[in-house]
Design goal:
This protein has about 850 residues and is α/β, with parallel strands linked by helices. It has 4 domains: about 80 residues, no CATH class; about 325 residues, Rossmann fold (3-Layer(aba) Sandwich), CATH 3.40.50.2000; about 200 residues, Rossmann fold, CATH 3.40.50; about 110 residues, Immunoglobulin-like (Sandwich). It is built from 27 helices and 28 strands. Strands 1, 2, 5, 6, 7, 8, 9, 10, 13 and 14 form a 10-stranded mixed β-sheet that branches. A 6-stranded parallel β-sheet has the order 17-16-15-18-19-20, with helices on both faces. Strand 16, helix 22 and strand 17 form a beta-alpha-beta unit. Helix 8 crosses helix 27, helix 11 packs across helix 12 and helix 19 runs antiparallel to helix 23. The longest helix is centred in the last third of the chain and has 44 residues. The relative contact order is 0.08.
């Protein structure tokens, strides 16, 4: 075996005329710019496909002869200059953020995620969470947000899927060659890689930083695979979600603590940090450590500063989806850190990892850490916001359900990333250039009605034809790899019909997503798919987690059904689902099927990707579809019921799928006039594009994150920082005072005026109360009347609160008097009570201190 004693990098040798290709290749703006994408394809179409659409590898492998040939091709050079000029214009144009807010030279928002789905050649993602994170950064670039991303760079990335002849999933891991990917190693002024160290038990662990440009936004990816580390530590960033629980905590230390240190080393000190899931929650500890070390704040003071400038987004609807570490493992990695750096006791530290304050925790929950460290918490759809409140309600004792401080911002997709070239050209033609240059303007979608029905339909049909051609090609490749016969390969050419109603289903094969629900009654499905007058076909793709045998069995079942002669031409499973496969599916299918078990789909974004492409959704009322569904926009499965008998649920909802297909979807699709256009179907396409396309996109989503969370967090951080953190110190002292003296507060009397038992609608119901506040003042608390209809007393969002007015204070008895009134606008039996909550101008929620008093 040869052992190399040194290394050097070989870069593509580009003729001067083609030099702009390098800059274009290293900015992932090309992933949503169809003109740039076509430019690379034009260099060498076959090599472009072979490199998995990797422009860096393409430029490194294309022959020098071909490059010289391109310099003499005036058409190509003109195309190159156009793309380069458009990139420069894009990078320098005035953005939404610059127009609306003061310009910031350095990023003050840092977005942390364990995975990013940016393009298929950059394997730093496993599924929807990663693609969402990638789309978040793309829209941050579009809107001009002063934001950077932080993540990990995996040597293996996520697994490549292939199936055995009997349909069982196998995994293959490909090694990423970082030097042939659209990213660059971050170096210092001496051109040496910047290396950062972390304290691990008994040793140092080192990592280097890689930079990915996404339009105007930089993403920094951390990599431990360097010679300074021992062989085990090199593997910390080897695989996405790989290894055991100890590997996971190591990865999350590198991501959270290492991420903050990496940004600081690069001269970036974010004022606001966004944790996309709990994987990066350790960043909150590192932010506290820096404030203690550099500004001499106490732990509690530093915690307050961090708390008001952290955002936590949760994506899971079940506790099982959250990382939980045993206290012994946490002690191994954080014992010295919390004692020497944070200067707190073990009891104080471990309470950070639990919402159950009344008892000593047995483990350390990363979601609980994030909740305890972030003033801004959100689920990723309206329904998921409610599910999250329910899941964590035990941590908010005495807080009415609808007031639990967990908000929601519904996910979206970066429309232009998932939009076909044909459809984008059509939209620009009828919606105007603002569709591209004003991403924040959602009113542009109202012009969808201007598109002629025939043009919209023909554009969509072309994409379906390309999807069918792609599916046939991939099917043949799959069959060849499994050693199929010549007759099987020939038969693959007849699979699918370019004109048939095409249903797409593609996602992670978790069991709750019920991938085989449509196969519940095979005889009935056979009749639906093989109707000669109105044929239907299904294209399916997706991966099961390597350790999920139940998910693998679902894939195997589908493969076996697809082999049956009755289904062979109508069902195709495409292996190795990735962003490229997803692109063909969402661009070309007519109907996107999604049937998760409600309420286990936090949001789901795959169905959003079909909207702008003209596809229609057919889904269970879960995640985003629960708020997006309307009869003129698509179809639903069920009415939002939740079952305890899961077999019965599957039976009922599979029948509903067949019923809706037979009675609504298929008749509408095949109802044609003399011009052979399905006018009713096209009307639904337009309604869906107009009403859903304007809402379920990441430009709207990221703008909401900015206005609801980022800017408010930034403002609070700025206030707390003034006068050497004076406000932070005052706030910390105030909180300590509130918590330590809260038990002094008492209700002495509550008196409705004249003891009235009945009033007329619209009349005032007046209440006076006498209260002892102890050492607190009326400025420290808010006294409220809490009231509502008695018959819906415990129903969410059915009760109301009004603030009472402080009327006076008796120095002798130390009694405060309060007055308030309520006006009821409907008749019925009402109930009321009083409550006292902490009050401070910087609080995001009055419940964040964990104290309240009810009468």
């Amino acid at each position: 075996m040869t052992n190399f004693i040194g290394s050097f990098t070989v870069a593509p040798s580009l003729p001067r005329t083609l030099e702009p290709l390098r800059e274009i290749a290293y900015n992932l703006y090309w992933t949503w710019n169809h003109d740039a994408y076509e430019l690379f394809r034009r260099i060498d179409r076959e090599l472009w496909e072979k490199t998995k659409h990797n422009p860096v590898r393409l430029l490194g492998n294309v022959s020098q002869e071909r490059l010289i040939e391109l310099t003499k091709d005036d058409g190509f050079v003109a195309h190159l200059n156009r793309v380069y000029n458009n990139l420069m214009i894009y990078l320098n144009q005035v953005t939404w953020h610059q127009k609306k807010y003061s310009v910031k030279d350095t990023p003050y928002i840092a977005y942390f995620s364990a995975e990013y789905g940016l393009t298929e050649c950059l394997q730093t993602y496993s599924g929807g969470l990663g693609v969402l994170a990638g789309d978040h950064l793309k829209s941050a670039s579009e809107l001009g947000l002063p934001l950077v991303g932080v993540g990990l760079l995996y040597k293996e990335g996520y697994f490549q899927q292939y199936l055995t002849s009997d349909g069982w999933q196998q995994e293959r891991y490909e090694i990423n060659d970082f030097y042939n990917l659209p990213l660059t190693l971050v170096v210092d002024k001496n051109k040496k890689p910047i290396v950062i160290e972390l304290d691990f038990p008994g040793r140092k662990v080192y990592f280097q930083i890689w930079k990915v440009l996404i339009g105007r936004v930089a993403l920094y990816l951390l990599d431990t695979n360097i010679d300074l580390n021992n062989e085990e530590d090199k593997k910390i960033t080897r695989a996405l979600y790989g290894g055991n629980n100890e590997t996971r905590i190591q990865q999350e230390i590198v991501l959270g603590i290492g991420g903050i240190r990496a940004l600081k080393t690069l001269g970036i000190e974010p004022l606001v940090c966004h944790m996309n899931e709990g994987h990066s929650a350790f960043l909150a500890l590192e932010r506290i450590r820096l404030l203690i070390k550099e500004h001499h704040l106490t732990f509690n003071e530093a915690k307050e500063v961090g708390y008001y400038s952290n955002i936590f987004t949760t994506h899971t609807p079940v506790p099982a989806g959250i990382d939980v570490f045993g206290n012994d493992l946490v002690e191994k990695y954080f014992g010295k850190y919390y004692r020497d750096e944070l200067k707190i006791t073990d009891k104080e530290f471990y309470r950070l990892g639990t919402l159950e304050k009344a008892k000593d925790p047995e483990n350390f929950n990363m979601a609980h850490l994030a909740i305890n460290m972030a003033a801004f918490i959100n689920g990723v759809s309206r329904l998921h916001g409610k599910v999250s409140k329910k899941m964590w309600s035990f941590g908010f004792k005495g807080v009415p359900f609808d007031e639990i401080p967990i908000d929601y911002i519904t996910n979206g997709v970066h429309t232009r990333t998932h939009l076909s070239t044909d459809m984008e050209e059509l939209l620009i033609r009828y919606l105007g250039e603002k569709f591209v240059h004003n991403p924040e303007d959602q009113t542009i979608w109202q012009r969808i009605d201007n598109i002629p029905d025939e043009e919209l339909w023909r554009t969509h049909e072309r994409r379906r034809e390309r999807l069918v051609a792609f599916a046939r090609k991939r099917l043949k490749e799959q069959l060849e790899s499994r050693g199929a016969s010549k007759s099987e390969l020939l038969a693959a050419n007849e699979t699918l019909d370019p004109g048939a109603l095409t249903i797409g289903f593609a996602r992670r094969f978790a069991t709750y997503k019920r991938a085989t629900l449509i196969f519940h009654d095979l005889e009935r499905l056979k009749k639906i798919l093989n109707n000669k007058e109105r044929p239907v076909q299904i294209i399916i793709s997706g991966k099961a987690h390597p350790k999920d045998d139940e998910g693998k069995r679902l894939i195997q079942k589908i493969i076996q059904i697809a082999k049956d002669e009755s289904f062979r031409k109508r069902i195709v499973f495409i292996e190795n689902y990735d962003m490229n496969v997803a692109r063909y599916l969402v661009e070309g299918c007519d109907v996107w099927l999604n049937n998760p078990r409600r309420p286990l789909e936090a949001s789901g974004t795959s169905g959003m990707k079909v909207i702008a492409n003209g596809g229609l959704n057919f889904s269970a009322l879960d995640g985003w579809w629960d708020e997006g569904y309307s009869p003129e926009l698509g179809w639903k499965i069920g009415n939002g019921e939740e079952y305890t008998d899961l077999e019965y649920q599957d039976e009922v909802e599979s029948r509903q799928i067949y019923d809706v297909l037979e009675n609504e979807i298929i008749p509408t699709f095949y109802k044609r006039g003399e011009d052979n256009l399905p006018r009713e179907w096209i009307s639904m396409m337009k309604a869906s594009m107009k009403k859903l396309g304007s809402v379920f996109n990441t430009n709207r989503m990221v703008e909401q994150y900015f206005t609801k969370f980022y800017y408010k967090a930034y403002q609070r951080r700025t206030v707390l920082k003034e006068n050497n953190w004076q406000k932070a110190k005052e706030l910390s002292n105030w909180k300590e005072k509130i918590i330590s003296t809260w038990n002094q507060i008492k209700f002495l009397s509550i008196e409705p005026k004249n003891d009235v038992k009945e009033i007329a609608v619209g009349e005032k119901f007046e209440i006076r109360a006498k209260i002892i506040l102890g050492s607190l003042t009326p400025n420290d608390v808010e006294v409220q009347i809490y009231y509502g209809h008695k018959d819906v007393e415990n129903k969410n969002a059915s009760n109301f609160a009004v603030t009472m007015t402080h009327m006076g204070y008796d120095k002798d008895t130390k009694v405060h008097e309060y007055y308030g009134s309520i006006i009821c606008h409907s008749s019925g039996l009402y109930g009321f009570t009083l409550r006292i909550l902490p009050k401070h101008e910087l609080l995001v929620s009055p419940f964040e201190l964990g104290v309240n008093l009810w009468a």
